[in-house]
Amino acid sequence: MSAAPRVAVVTGASRGIGRGIALELGAAGYAVYCIGRSSRTGRAYDDQRAVADGLDLTVESAAEEVSRKGGRGIPCPCDLSSDDDIERVLDEVYEKEGRLDVLVCSAFTTPAKQSIRGEFWTQGMQMWDAVNGIGLRQVYMTCQAAAPKLIETAKRTGNDQSAPPPLICLVSSFGGKSYTFNVAYGVGKAGIDRLSTDMSYQLKRYNVATTTLYPGLVRTEANLQMVEDGTWDEASGNLDLDQGESPEFSGRALVRLASLSKDDMMSRSGNVEVVAELAKEFDFTDIDGSRPASIRSLKYLAPNFIFPQIEKEAGKPVPSWMRDNVPDLLLPWSVFSSGPPPEMDSR
To answer: What PANTHER family is this protein classified in (predicted)?
Structure first.
C-alpha cells in the first residue's frame, strides 16, 4: 500500500516565486493548497497589461497547473491580511487532509504606484506597512497557526529517521544580508531570516524543520512587466533579467530540501539556503537547463557590478578573457553583507 501523498500549503501561489514553488511541488506528487487573494471568484490580478495580458494569475489557475503536473492542486482564495482568514484556511486543510507536511510563505506586496527605491524618510509608512504587513507580520501569523498541525504530522513518523520532517519554508532574499532597494525592505527580510532561525530552536524538539530560501534574480511576471513598461533598468540597477532564474528554480530547490531525511534536514534547520547554491549541491538545473550563479558568487558579481564600475572609471571595456574566466567563487557572508554593490552607494 503506497503512502499518502504529502500535503503542502503555499501562500502567494497565484504568481511569481510562490507559483513556481507550487508547480514543482505538484510535479513531485504533492497535494498543494494554493493560497492567495487573486481568484476568479473574487479579487483578480490588479494589472493585466502587456506581460500579464491573457494570463490567468489566480489561485485556481495555479491549482490546475499543479494537477496537470501530476500533483493535486486545490485553490484557496484567502485574504492574507486577515488573521481569521488564515486560520480558517489552515483549519480546513488539516481537517480535510489530516496532515500538513510543508508550509511555504511566499506572499509579498509593495505599495501600488510607488517606486521601491527611495530614502526611508520620503516613503512614508505605506512602504513599511506594505512590505512588512504581508511580508513579515502575516508570515509570523501563518507559521503560528500552522505549527500545531506540523507538530501533529511529525508525531506520526515517530522515530523513522529516513522520513522527511515537516518543513516551514520562508521565501526571503539577499536583502536580508545586504542593503537592497530600501530600509523597510531590508529590515523585513532580515526579520524573515531571524524568524526562521528562532522558530527552528523551538520546533527542533518536535521534529519540525525550518528553512529560509534565497532566490536570485527571478523572471517573475511583475519583473517581466517592468521590462515591458521600461521601468526595469531603474528599479533593478540595469541588471539583465534574461540571465535570471525562473520561479520554478526555487521550487526545485525546495523539493530537494523537503525530500531530505529527518537527520539531514534537522541538521540544517534554521539555515539560509541559496537556490543557486542548492542547485550545485543537489545537481539540478533550471527549467531551461541552465544553472545560474549565486548572487554572492564572483561569477555573478563581476559582470553585474564589478566590471561596469571598472569600465566606468577606466573608460574602456574589460577584456574578454577576463569576462570569460570569472570563477564561481562564493564571497563569505561577512564580506557580502558589508555594504551595497558600488553603483548602489549613490542610490
So the answer is: DEHYDROGENASE/REDUCTASE SDR FAMILY MEMBER 1, DEHYDROGENASE_REDUCTASE SDR FAMILY MEMBER 1
Q: Which residues are catalytic?
A: 185
pLDDT (mean) for 217-246: 86
Q: Which residues pair with 33 in a beta bridge?
A: 9, 74
Q: Which helix (H) or strand (E) holds 16?
A: helix 16-27
Domain 7-282, CATH among 3.40.190.10, 3.30.40.10, 3.40.50.720, 3.40.50.300: 3.40.50.720
**Residue range 87-137, pLDDT digits in tens:** 999 999 999 999 999 999 999 888 877 888 889 999 999 999 999 999 999
Task: Enumerate the domain spans of the chain.
Answer: 7-282, 298-344
Nearest Cα residue to 304 out of 238, 224, 242, 245: 238
Worst-scoring range by mean pLDDT, 76-80, 257-261, 312-316?
A: 312-316
pTM check: above 0.90: yes
CA distance 167 to 255: 11
Q: DSSP of 45-108, one letter per residue?
A: -S--SGGGTT---SHHHHHHHHHHTTSEEEEEE--TT-HHHHHHHHHHHHHHHS---EEEE---
Instruction: List, for residues 56-68, the tens digit of each pLDDT value.
Output: 889 999 999 999 9
- Rounded CA-CA distance 35/10 in Å is 6
